[in-house]
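Practice problem: D-3-phosphoglycerate dehydrogenase
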Amino acid sequence: MFQIRTLNNISARGLERLPRDQYEVASEINRPDAVLVRSANMHEMEIPETVKAIGRAGAGVNNIPVDTMSQRGVPVFNAPGANANAVKELVIAAMLMGARNLTQAWEYTRNLQESGESLTKAVEDGKKQFAGFELPGRTLGVVGLGAIGRAIADAALALGMRVIGYDPGITVEGAWQLSAEVERAPNVDALFAKSEFVTFHVPLVDATRHILNAERVKTLPKGAVVLNFARHGIVDDHAVMEALDSGHLGAYLCDFPSETNRHHPKVVALPHLGASTGEAEDNSAMMVADEVRDYLEDGNVRNSVNFPETVMERVEGAYRVAVVNSNVPNILGQVSTDFADAGLNIIDMINKSRGDLAYTLVDVDQPVPESALDAIRETPGVLSVRIL
Ligand SMILES: NC(=O)C1=CN([C@@H]2O[C@H](COP(=O)(O)OP(=O)(O)OC[C@H]3O[C@@H](n4cnc5c(N)ncnc54)[C@H](O)[C@@H]3O)[C@@H](O)[C@H]2O)C=CC1
Ligand SMILES: O=C(O)CCC(=O)C(=O)O
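Answer key — structure tokens:
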């Protein structure tokens, strides 16, 4: 029986992918084989030695100690694209809120004390304060053209906007999916210089922390609207507040309220709502539950942020061994020797590496004796060995 610990509310449709005759799933499990998580911060948590996989039911993994897990030979999975539509819709809503001053206008009418004719007059007199502008012809800069950035670029083009994008790490697959109408910025500064709206869809890593800082905020056109539905640390809150106060920026709409931003009259700070739709929660949980199950049962790796993509069909009747090791020479040779010494014949094998890690699946023709597994475990550089 596999034991799965959940750290957040994971959608029931995702958990249904883990059959109850094989999986026990609960938030109170002491020796879990895997952990399913959304936004819970795992950096300060003690992660039990029994954990073989972590599944993030979402995109961002900055709440997970990925490097430590890599050193322990534990894959971290996520659900790329599963919540992209939900974030896209919220960002488009935010863009319209910013362009038409919707929250301020709504606040105005809610606070009116008048009634009857006086109410009508107050409405008509007050509306000029909230006059906005339309989107066609305006330029949107999209920083990060992954699943969410691309979806937003398409939606903005459909609304008649001009779209400029910047993504130094765009994949070939990602580039194929990007509309040819998206103009390519050579760097983030060139993008900022032209963007009346700028939206961020990058992971929070050292290179993206405060990518919009005090210096760069000045390079945005006057009145620009900043949208941050990626992570709190992507934008320097203080720099943005100063630019709002000076009138240089028109509005800041984000998913990350802080003491600094949430009371500012030109800020709309939502409670991390980007992926909070039933559809996104189901999609993310189902995708990541399938990935974790495939890893626990068959050793396959799909959509991991630290392990190489490794998928090998199972041969009927074969016995499978999964080995995680540091990416150093000769470990594969040693594993093959250990199998040969145990009189095992290798039927199929796949070996992949990513950064400092290497991962091998080996199918053999007979049950693997514990002595052969121990011999592999003792090889310097081997991080984990599982029989599946
Ligand atoms: N508000 C919310 O609820 C949600 C927030 N997010 C956040 O949005 C981020 C992006 O999500 P996805 O688009 O699904 O991820 P993704 O992995 O599909 O795309 C991220 C893109 O950012 C690019 N990138 C990385 N460093 C960059 C840099 N320095 N400059 C420009 N581009 C850079 C990558 O090459 C990649 O194409 C996540 O990492 C997460 O932090 C994601 C889902 C929901
Ligand atoms: O699970 C959530 O609600 C947060 C989603 C998110 O931030 C992500 O997928 O990166």
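Discussion: Residues 278-298 form the longest helix (21 residues). Students who identified this feature from the tokens alone can consider the problem solved.
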